[in-house]
Amino acid sequence: MSTLPPCPKCNSEYTYEDGTMLICPECAHEWSAIAAEAAPEGDKVIKDSVGNVLQDGDTITVIKDLKIKGSSLVVKVGTKVKNIRLVDGDHDIDCKIDGIGAMKLKSEFVKKV
Ligand SMILES: [Zn+2]
């Protein structure tokens, strides 16, 4: 039994390998075996300051005072933040904090509750 994936174009099961390429003998479609095995999107794991895996909807607390750029507001250590949303980027948590509003935090400065 072949473990190769079927042709993405015509679904033929008779695909074969040629180096790093996969080839379909029925429609002559060629594609990269490496790309076909790439990890699915959303595989990135974001962890808090102590290594807990964070997920959308989690509640976290802030582990150090965080100054908000361009304002005099400070998110105090211990501030509880509900219903976080994970995003890509340097600041990987999107959230809304009572009394402050929508802002972004870094996962290294929070701890899952
Ligand atoms: Zn094909």
Automatic annotation (TrEMBL):
Any matching Pfam family: Zn_Ribbon_YjdM
Domain Protein YjdM N-terminal: 3-32
MF GO annotations: hydrolase activity
Signal sequence, start to end: none
KW Hydrolase (keyword) present: yes
Family in the record: Belongs to the YjdM family.
Protein name: Protein YjdM
